[in-house]
Task: inverse folding
């Protein structure tokens, strides 16, 4: 999937300047930058939810999006939330619920699930759509650190082996350095790509990324910057 935004305005205000990036099949890219810079705006453009921009999104294939809030149908069971939105078969729904650690919860309504569980259901729903491109907007925000770390591990595990181009918006550097193969940082006004940092440490070894290691790897000029080496 390739994205080229020449510019994006809201009214008279230009939000995004020239942005060119691509996400390959099986790759995880984190999009980060200060609050209000335009991360969600870029994600909405890629998702096709905002077509009022100059540029193009090429070869996204089927797109699934995981929003900040899980946006589930509260009056439908967990299984129905997957089935009704994607048409997935019972067997694959059960498999997906198992994969995201929601075995035995197929009949539960979203209100009977914790926020972390609702987020896992939203992830399962996105995967049930069998997407070529997966867009995640701050998917682990407002979870306690331990739950967020578990969610990151789970996300890496379910994406392993699936050839999905994944773009994750996050302001959390630990999250970016843990999950991503590449971190794209937006900066400036209007926003453009400030830095792209490849994370070369294998995913399997990123289990215990610390704030300090993430900062080293992702701070421009930081010790780990050249190689994105987290250890
Ligand atoms: N529908 C809209 N109409 C006008 N301005 C908007 C609209 N949506 C977003 N903006 C403006 O565009 C800018 C970028 O917003 P956006 O939500 O993309 O930032 P963000 O980087 O995702 O922020 P955060 O990290 O806080 O979620 C902000 O100044 C915001 O006020």
Result:
């Amino acid at each position: 999937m390739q994205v080229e935004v020449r510019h994006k305005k809201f009214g008279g205000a230009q939000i995004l300047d020239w942005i060119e990036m691509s996400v390959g099949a099986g790759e995880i890219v984190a999009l980060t930058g200060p609050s209000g810079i335009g991360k969600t705006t870029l994600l909405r453009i890629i998702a096709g939810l905002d077509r009022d921009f100059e540029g193009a999104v090429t070869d996204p294939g089927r797109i699934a999006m995981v929003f900040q809030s899980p946006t589930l149908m509260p009056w439908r069971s967990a299984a129905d939330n997957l089935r009704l939105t994607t048409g997935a078969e019972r067997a694959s729904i059960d498999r997906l619920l198992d994969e995201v650690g929601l075995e035995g919860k197929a009949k539960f309504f979203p209100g009977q699930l914790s926020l972390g569980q609702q987020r896992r259901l939203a992830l399962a729903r996105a995967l049930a759509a069998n997407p070529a491109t997966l867009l995640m907007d701050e998917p682990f925000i407002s979870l306690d650190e331990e739950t967020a770390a578990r969610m990151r591990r789970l996300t890496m595990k379910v994406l392993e082996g699936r050839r999905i181009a994944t773009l994750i918006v996050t302001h959390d550097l630990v999250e970016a350095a843990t999950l991503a193969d590449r971190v794209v940082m937006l900066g400036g006004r209007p926003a453009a790509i400030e830095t792209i940092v490849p994370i070369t440490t294998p995913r399997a070894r990123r289990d215990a990324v610390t704030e300090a290691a993430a900062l080293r790897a992702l701070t421009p000029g930081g010790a780990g910057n050249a190689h994105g080496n987290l250890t």
User: Anything to note?
Assistant: The beta strands are 2-10, 13-16, 19-22, 28-32, 54-58, 63-66, 133-137, 165-169, 182-187, 192-198. The radius of gyration is 18 Å. Helices lie at 39-47, 78-86, 90-99, 115-128, 145-159, 173-179, 211-218.
